[in-house]
Design brief:
548 residues, alpha/beta, 2 domains, six-stranded mixed sheet, six-stranded antiparallel sheet, 16 strands
């Protein structure tokens, strides 16, 4: 997929629409192309070849993912990581919408076709922003959306650190949410899903893991053979720590290329926000911001990691209380620094990748092909630039999967086109009432010719050329005539206003319920499976949803 194609990606607008690009039938070609690209890669990572580091990274990934997944569902016997193909995707461990869920099923289908290892990364270094779910409720004539909590609000800490705070609230969520939506969706998947979540809550206390494991169990029951692993467990692997040390040792150059790539993206897409697609890496009093988070078990609020360079070594800090020296130079061996990072973790200080670093490592070392959603694919324009400018390597191809599934709630017919037409009709009834009066001679008999006289007067003023001298008089005269004609179109105005009111209400109800963002667990199982299966098997026909 080219950069221009990435930029033009759009979520399908039609209900049941799917985007898988390139086509699943092109999977072999994409992997062959990536293999050819990788064969030409030559890159030194603090004295180790990228090839050797990637082999270690995949072995660590496979072992950790199989162990983690095997703690809650059956796992197929892992293949030899030295010869296996690895396909990866990733998302936060949240109750996302079906269009995001499609990515997991596309990943599984890709792995099935290739006999590859499919691993889904749970991005648990992101913060949980809201421990509740938007749930539509009410009758079909007047639906509304409410927020149903599944845990108490708390500090904005990463998923990795978020334990369930209110077990009673969590366990009752399924019943409360099902009751709320039942008038619109009688039997949502939530009826089967939430008991699984409650079962996992009895085994693990971490909210993100509970939600992800319950969802992954459902995927297994539906025939999906994939592995999952929290990104936090990738970050503690020796290979990733080696890469972390490398980025810290090379941070002045990395930061320069990173900020340049982000600025280029903003210029290209006319983005004014300093937060999109990512904030710049800053500089404060000689400390450079690095593409990592840092926090401690005592203070779980994540902070940016900073690095400085003193006496040929790297110092790292959270900008507040932590300051640690890493024994490594820009081109030196990273072994001692890797051991220091491991000791920090054991003592309760955690260093985790930020979004771009996560994807960079996944595409560089962990996967033969990475599967993105639409947003990630667009932002990976920046990652591609870092491949080229920082790593001096051609970036591998990626794939994209997304879709749109609306809740199966019958809505009254309501059209935006009709709404616009009615608004225009009401405007014309006020400003051009004569258009709606028919032939004057057919209505003069009942009103003594008054209508005809007013219409003729307006026509006379309209035909009179406007000058500086007559402009005010002409405008006032036309307005007066329009006002005097209003009683004769009053019924038409009432009819149009009544129809517009009903239409506005129907469109508001439709907008509140017919949105793609509702969680997958609020949909009926049959509708979900039809959507997911159909998207995969028809992906060669329904494969593109780009602008133009």
């Amino acid at each position: 997929m080219t950069r221009s194609e990435q930029a033009q990606l759009r979520a399908p607008s039609q209900d049941g629409g799917a985007l898988i690009a390139p086509r699943l039938s092109e999977l072999d070609g994409a992997l062959d192309e990536n293999r050819a690209i990788r064969e030409g890669w030559r890159y030194d990572v603090q004295g180790r070849s990228l090839k050797d580091l990637a082999h270690q990274a995949r072995a660590e990934l496979l072992q950790a993912a199989a162990t983690y997944t095997g703690s809650y569902r059956d796992v197929s016997f892992p293949p030899d990581p030295a010869t296996a193909e690895f396909l990866l995707a990733g998302h936060q461990p949240e109750l996302f919408h079906p269009g995001v869920w499609l990515k997991n099923f596309a990943l599984g289908e890709m792995a099935r076709r290739r006999g590859a290892v499919a691993v889904n990364l749970l991005i648990d270094n992101d913060t949980i922003k809201n421990a509740s779910l938007h749930v539509p409720t009410g009758g079909r004539e007047a639906p509304r959306v409410i927020s149903v909590p599944f845990d108490r609000p708390g500090a904005p800490v990463p998923y990795e650190e978020h334990t369930i705070a209110d077990e009673e609230l969590f366990r009752s969520f399924g019943k409360r949410a099902v009751e709320a939506i039942r008038s619109l969706v009688p039997h949502p998947l939530l009826e089967q899903f939430w008991p699984l979540a409650c079962g996992r809550a009895g085994e693990v206390g971490n909210l993100g893991m509970v939600l992800a494991q319950a969802r992954h169990i459902v995927e297994g029951r539906w025939g999906l053979d994939t592995l999952e692993i929290p990104q936090s467990r990738v970050c503690v692997g020796e290979s990733f720590r080696w890469f972390t040390v490398h980025l810290l040792a090379q941070l002045p150059r990395f930061r320069e290329e990173y900020n340049a790539a982000v600025a280029r993206y903003r210029r290209k897409h006319a983005i004014r926000s300093a937060a999109h697609p990512f904030p710049d890496l800053t500089q404060k009093n000689g400390w450079l911001e690095a593409p990592f988070w840092i926090w401690t078990v005592a203070q779980r609020r994540r902070r940016p990691l900073f690095a400085a360079y003193r006496h040929g070594q790297v110092l790292i800090s959270d900008g507040e209380a932590i300051e640690v020296r890493l024994p490594v130079t820009a081109d030196g061996d990273a072994a001692a620094a890797v051991e220091r990072l491991a000791a920090l973790e054991a003592a309760g200080t955690k260093i985790r990748s930020r979004a771009l670093t996560t994807t960079l490592w996944a595409r560089l070392a962990l996967s033969d092909l990475f599967l993105h959603g639409i947003g990630g694919a667009k932002y990976d324009e920046v990652t591609d630039r870092l491949f080229e400018r920082f790593l001096d390597l051609p970036p591998p191809r990626l794939m994209v999967a997304s879709g749109t599934l609306l809740l199966p709630v019958p809505m009254p017919e309501a059209s935006l086109d009709e709404q616009r037409e009615l608004k225009q009709r009401l405007w014309r009834l006020r400003h051009h009432p004569e258009v709606f009066l028919g032939r004057v001679r057919n209505i003069e008999a009942g009103n003594g010719g008054e209508v005809g006289r007013l219409v003729q007067e307006k026509h006379r003023w309209v035909r009179t050329p406007q000058t500086r001298e007559n402009a005010r008089e002409r405008c006032r005269a036309i307005r007066r005539v329009n006002a005097e004609l209003q009683p004769f179109v009053a019924q038409q105005r009432r009819d149009a206003a009544e129809r517009l009111g009903k239409l506005d209400h129907a469109l508001e109800a439709k907008h509140s319920v017919r949105r793609r963002e509702f969680s997958f667990c609020l949909h009926p199982e049959a509708a979900l499976r039809h959507f997911l299966d159909g998207a995969l098997f028809q992906s060669d026909a329904i494969c593109s949803n780009r602008e133009g």
